[in-house]
Amino acid sequence: MALYALGDLHLSFQSDKSMDKFGKVWRHHDRKIEKYVRQIVKPEDTLVLTGDHSWGRKLADCREDLAFIERFPGRKILLRGNHDMFWDAKKTERLNEEYRGKLFFLQNNFAVYQDYALVGTKGYTFEGPFYLDHQGRIVGWDEQKEEQARKLVEREMARLRSSFSQAREAGYKKFIMFLHYPPTNILEKTSPFTEIAQEYNVTAVVYSHCHGESRFGDSIRGDFQGVRYMLVSGDYLHFHPAAVLP
How far apart are CA 118 and CA 192, in angstroms? Predict the structure, then answer.
C-alpha cells in the first residue's frame, strides 16, 4: 500500500485544447499519464491528483476526462485546480455523492490514508505582475491585484483550517497537506500556507501548478522547517506519479 500524487493532467477528451505548444513533454501526454499511472499505482494504493484535471468548463464537458481518471487503479482523490471550472466550491458534496465509490473530491473535508488525515484546498499565490528594472530586479508590483490575492489566500486558508479541524475532531494527529498552487511565490520565504503546515506539524506539503523548467523552482522543494515540500506537476515528473508515503 502506498500514497502517490500527480498534478496538472490537463485532459481534453471533449474539448479542443492541445498542450503540445508547451513543449515536447506534452506530446500525447494522456497516453503517458495512463502508461505510467498503471505501471506505478497498484489497486491497493491511493492516488491524489492535485488539480487542473480537465479543460472542460462544465461537468458535462468533463465526463470523459473524469471517466479516464476513474479507470486508473487504486483509490482516486481529486483536488480543485484553478482551471477546474466544472467544480464550483459549493458543489463538492454533490460531486462526492455522484461519484461515490469512484472518485473523492477533497475540499472542506478530509480523506484518510492509514493513520494520516489528507487535507487540501486549491490555495493561492500572488504571481504578479511584478515590475522589473533593466537588470531584472523586482522593484514593485500591482498593489490592487496583490490585495485581491490576499483575500483569496484568506478564503483558502479558512477552507484549509476547516479541513484540519474536522480531521482533528475525528482523532487524527498526523497530516499530509495538498495544494494546487505552490505554497509561496517567488518573493516569499514563508506564507500563511507554510505557517499552517508548521502549526499542524504536517509531514509533507504536496503541490503542483508550476509548469515548464523555468518555473519548477518558483517555490519550496525539499525539507524546510521540518516539513517535506513536493512539487508534483505532471511535466515536472514526466507524468510519473510521485510516492508521498509508503
Answer: 18
In whole angstroms, what is the distance from residue 11 CA to residue 122 CA? 18
Nearest to 208 by CA among 87, 129, 148, 120: 120
Alpha-carbon distances of 235 from 32, 117, 208, rounded to whole Å = 11, 27, 10
| Ramachandran quadrant class, 207 (left: phi over 0; alpha: psi -120 to 50; beta: rest) | beta
Residue 43 DSSP symbol: T
Percent of the chain exceeding pLDDT 70 equals 100
3-state secondary structure of 65: helix
Residue 100, classed as helix, strand or coil, is coil
**What pLDDT score was predicted for residue 35?**
98
Which residues are CB-contacts of 109 (< 8 A; sequence separation ≥ 6)?
92, 96, 163, 166
The CA angle 73-76-77, to the nearest 5 degrees, is 165
Each residue of 137-188: pLDDT tens digit? 888 889 898 899 999 999 999 999 999 999 999 999 999 999 999 999 988 9
Round to whole Å and give the CA distance between 175 and 225: 16
In angstroms, the CA 93 to CA 208 distance is 24
